[in-house]
Design brief:
heterodimer, A: 431 residues, alpha/beta, Aconitase, domain 3, seven-stranded mixed β-sheet, B: 185 residues, Aconitase, domain 4, binds iron/sulfur cluster
């Protein structure tokens, strides 16, 4: 039987020879990831259901990152981190990355990659919808709620419906004014926010395999914005080099059979695509940057698991170099490693950090920050009536703070160009 | 399962995401503390732009004043209900507010799983669009055994898609009860 990469990984995890879309199977989970918002309620449900002597199915396979609401005075938010800290202590957990210590990492999806938890052919569940990000490593990765996570925590198993797959092939060489973000905004505009519901989105084509892991993660990260279960890119040399530099753990590479069945296949010639935005208030509200050029902004934001990776900042720095920003511009590295890289990586002999500082940007500590609004003292949060352009992944009403604000989603190149003018600007004007 | 659920409809549009169901700033309350968790009911649907709340006219608050329960216990949505984040706080908030059933053309996967596996709500799907046929405040009756929705106010009847694979989990109460019944745990 011919299968897609997603079907192959899931049939292995289900202990079956083959699986078909629509079938419900019980999976063996390789890694469970949680964070400060969903971790405490997950632990609570687990204790309630499995009793006070509940056992974690496999401590090495549980990974916990405080990352969402951590630099805040909000007492409820701080209590959540305290619960995780105590839990990690009580159970002597090997993979807890506490804030305020040298272990602190930042945004979970990026930290999973950096710490070597993303392994081709494995199955990852996380209590966060953007868990699909890890699919960039040729693995199955998806988000679940607290109850499902509590079930996994106690059993290492969960049921899942085998998804149909939709394939997106990006042919040609990516022009320098485009990034992975433009490609995924194109996809979302084409399939809409529910076009991928209960499906796997598989990304393929030369333009994808030319990308580094950071850029690939931007594609899979936003699979959920199309309603998908997972996004996936088969592992290649680039993936293996990234993984081998971080872990000795074994992995297995799967790829789709040539005549595997797809729900639909989309082909793109990347040389014909344009820099794009998603206009308020939906990630599928696609338009070209040229069409909304001149829209006055009050804030620019470069951060999150989607747009706060090293490649996002090198792209932004190329444009910001030697300029001043006209509106408050926030630089929020997704992880502490990326924060350090901003000091080490140079463009024209100057560190990225220096470039942003010289331009008048505000550089924040690594965390989710205003990507999801957060408590009222969150850095970069959108307040009433603001017009923001951001490299994040969602612009639903109120996502970045006030529901009265307008958020445009765009690539780091477009956000950087827009920051310089204080209005939405096509990056081609600066490249 | 013979259960009949009666109540009043609250009608919403397409793509009601989890930030509209329970805005992110409210995710800090305890889900188990009986008093504190009432906040989730109080802020249920508080992120829905008011013009889109309670269609067709809009402008209907789901929760009035300082209450934590709503007079509406049946939600009529459009397509892609519950899209957005993985927060289980979303179906939980609706349950605290008194919602028993949601009827929508389609659901986002995580919201759907959370509703069922957590035993919070029954997410019915419909083959046809209903959020332009039913008005907020209509008196509805759902007969679970025959998958029918009756609109008493408008004297109409609509078919609901059978719950299929998830029915045994709903009948058991939640995924843990289901797993126990089937010797999975
Ligand atoms: S950065 Fe934003 S999208 Fe990513 S995990 Fe944090 S809140 Fe979610």
């Amino acid at each position: 039987m011919q299968m897609t990469i997603t079907e192959k990984i899931l049939s292995k995890s289900a202990g079956k020879k083959n699986v078909k879309p629509g079938e419900n199977v019980w999976l063996d989970v390789d890694v469970l990831m949680t964070h400060d918002v969903c971790g405490p309620p997950t632990i609570e449900i687990w204790k309630k259901e499995f009793g006070e002597n509940a056992k974690i199915w496999d401590k090495d396979k549980l990974v916990i990152f405080p990352d969402h609401y951590i630099f805040t005075k909000n007492s409820h938010a701080n209590r959540n981190v305290e619960i995780l800290r105590q839990f990690a202590k009580d159970y002597n957990l090997p993979n807890y990355y506490d804030v305020g210590t040298a272990d602190y990492k930042g945004v979970c999806h990026i930290a999973l990659a950096e710490e070597g938890f993303n392994l081709p052919g494995t199955v990852l569940f996380g209590t966060d919808s953007h868990t699909c990000t890890s699919g960039a490593f040729g693995m199955f990765a998806t988000g679940v709620g607290n109850t499902d996570a509590a079930f996994i925590l106690g059993t290492g198993k969960i049921w899942e419906r085998i998804p149909e797959s939709i394939k997106f092939v990006f042919n040609g060489e990516l022009p320098k004014y485009l990034t992975a973000k433009d490609l995924i905004l194109q996809v979302l505009g084409d399939i809409t926010t529910d076009g991928g519901t209960y499906c796997a989105l598989e990304f393929d084509g030369e333009a994808v395999f030319e990308m580094d892991m950071n850029e690939r993660m931007t594609l899979t990260n936003m699979a959920i914005e199309g309603g998908a279960m997972n996004g996936i890119i088969k592992a290649d040399e680039v993936t293996m080099n990234y993984v081998k530099a971080r872990t000795y753990k074994p992995y297995e590479i799967f790829e789709s059979d040539d005549d595997a069945k797809y729900k639909s296949i989309y082909n793109y010639d990347v040389s014909k695509l344009e820099p794009l935005v998603a206009k308020p208030h939906s990630p599928d509200n696609k338009d070209t940057v040229r069409n909304v050029e001149g829209t006055k902004l009050t804030k620019c934001y470069i951060g999150s698991c989607t747009g706060g990776k090293l490649s996002d900042f090198t792209n932004a720095a190329k444009i910001i170099y030697g300029n001043r920003v006209k509106v408050p511009t926030f630089i929020v590295p997704a992880s502490t490693l990326i924060s350090r890289q901003l000091e080490e990586e140079k463009f024209n002999g100057i560190s990225l950090k220096q470039i942003f500082e010289n331009a008048g940007c505000y550089i924040a500590q690594s965390s989710c920050a205003a990507c999801l609004g957060g408590p009222s003292d969150t850095i970069g949060r959108a307040v009433d009536g603001e017009v923001v352009i951001s490299t994040t992944n969602r612009n639903f009403p109120g996502r970045m703070g006030s529901k009265k604000s307008d958020v445009y989603l765009a690539s780091p190149l477009t956000v950087a160009a827009s920051a310089i003018r204080g209005s939405i600007t096509d990056p081609r004007d600066y490249l | 399962m013979e259960k009949v659920i009666k109540g009043k409809a609250f009608v919403l549009g397409n793509n009601v995401d989890t930030d509209q169901i329970i805005p992110a700033e409210h995710l800090v309350y305890s889900l188990s503390d009986p008093i504190e968790s009432k906040n989730y009911g109080k802020f249920a649907f508080s992120g829905v732009p008011i013009k889109d709340a309670g269609l067709p006219l809009g402008g209907v608050p789901f929760i009035v004043g300082n209450n934590f329960t709503s007079q509406f216990n049946i939600i009529i949505g459009g397509s892609n209900f519950g899209c957005g984040s993985s927060r289980e706080h979303a179906p939980f908030a609706l349950k605290v507010a008194g919602v028993e059933v949601i009827i929508a053309e389609s659901y986002a996967r995580i919201f759907y799983r959370n509703s069922v596996d957590g035993g919070f709500l029954i997410p019915y799907e419909t083959g046809i669009k209903l959020n332009d046929k039913i008005s907020t405040g209509d008196d509805l009756e759902i007969v679970l055994s025959d998958n029918k929705l009756r609109n008493i106010t408008k004297s109409e009847e609509y078919d609901l898609n059978p719950l299929g694979d998830i029915l045994p989990i709903i009948e058991a109460g939640n995924i843990f009860e289901y797993a126990k019944l089937n010797n999975l745990i």
